[in-house]
Amino acid sequence: MQNQPTPFYNPLLSYEENYQQGPFGAFSLTPPSIPEKKQPETFLNLEVNLPFGIPAGPLLNASFIKAAFNYGFDLCVYKTVRSRAHASHPLPNVLSVHPENQLSAGVDTVLADTNYTTPLSITNSFGVPSFNPDIWQPDMAAAVNAAHKGQFLIGSFQGTAGNEASIERDYAKTALLVAETEAPILEANLSCPNEGVNQLLCFDFPKVERIAKEIKNAVPDKPLFLKLAYFANDEAIYPLLHVLDGVVDGYSTINTLSARPVNADGKPALGQNRPTGGVCGDAIRWAGLEMVERLHRLRTRLNNHFAIIGVGGVSNAEHYLAYRAAGADAVMSATGAMWNPQLALQIKSSLNK
Q: Strand, coil or helix: what is 10?
């Protein structure tokens, strides 16, 4: 194993400090020249240089998005926003985790510390923080305008429950706020691990159907993706895909796998009030690939043409190609990109050989 370079999100700083001071590492430097791809690809009828980018999470604002675009990440997701301000969990928010083997789909107990070594997996625990729309809307609009030719911003958002009856309307309200920034693609986050291992919204099919239809009614003219968690088999997710046939335009998967991070003393590494956290990075690649294969298989069964964004454990060109071979129309990397800002350039150089 070897030590990692400086990530563009600093785990030692709070979410607010990263928002104000970041990005860090190479992302804060003059961007390199980007190798031209011979032929752009089509994603959702859009010509994209390479359908590769960074998912919802580490790109906190327009400064992070601009840096990612400059480093050749062509599909960039603006961190999930809400219709009103929501505070971040306190530190620690990001820790390295060290599963003995690949992480299971259950809730494994894993050692967590600040030893960020390869193969890299991390736990993140933020609670989906958001500023008020009067702050994030103009900033997201600036992020949209930072895209170069063949690059696109995706606006991620989440409803905030005031009461049980309002969550659908709040998703739709927030979708409208995102659409006002001119973000060309919308992504509804339905799989935040902070909601509880067994309470993830994406497992409540009737509610997901209502939310998706509310969003589509509010913003009918923009592609809508749903961000999903891991489903154990085809039949576990088929009913959802069937009922949303023709309603949504695609799915992004996976978010994370839940685990119990503990320190060397066996105590909750994120604090007593946060016994579990979402894990991303190398340890979940198997689950991301499996979900892409599952969705690809089921869209053939449904004779549907929804798009698939594959996420989870991508840190090199081989991983990117594995996701494409599994059926992903686009691929994204969070952990891999955070610690290796050159990742998109490396994949493009590899594909151009």
A: coil
Surface-to-core class of residue 1, CB atoms within 10 Å of its CB (0-12 exposed, 13-18 middle, 19+ buried):
exposed
CA-to-CA distance for 49 and 342, rounded, in angstroms? 16
- H helices within 78-223, ranges in order? 133-145, 167-179, 205-218
Please list the pLDDT of the chain residue by residue as tens digits (353 residues): 445 689 999 999 999 999 999 999 999 998 877 766 668 899 999 999 999 999 999 999 999 999 999 999 999 999 999 999 999 999 999 999 999 888 999 999 999 999 999 999 999 999 999 999 999 999 999 999 999 999 999 999 999 987 555 899 999 999 999 999 999 999 999 997 654 445 689 999 999 999 999 999 999 999 999 999 999 999 999 999 999 999 999 999 999 999 999 999 999 999 999 999 999 999 999 999 999 999 999 999 999 889 999 999 999 999 999 999 999 999 999 999 999 999 999 999 999 87
| Euclidean distance between CA atoms 126 and 14, whole angstroms | 10
| Site of tokens 């599952």 | 294
Which residues, including other chains, have CB under 8 Å from residue 267's CB and lie 6 or more apart?
Answer: none
- Write the burial class of residue 101 (CB in 10 Å: 0-12 exposed, 13-18 middle, 19+ buried): exposed
- Rounded to an integer, what distance in angstroms lies between the CA atom of residue 167 and that of residue 296? 30
Beta bridge partners of 117: 3
How far apart are the C-alpha atoms of 322 and 85, rounded to whole Å? 38
Q: Look up residue 104 and give its two tokens.
A: 């299971």
Cis peptide before 275 (omega within 30 of 0): no
CA distance 164 to 169: 10
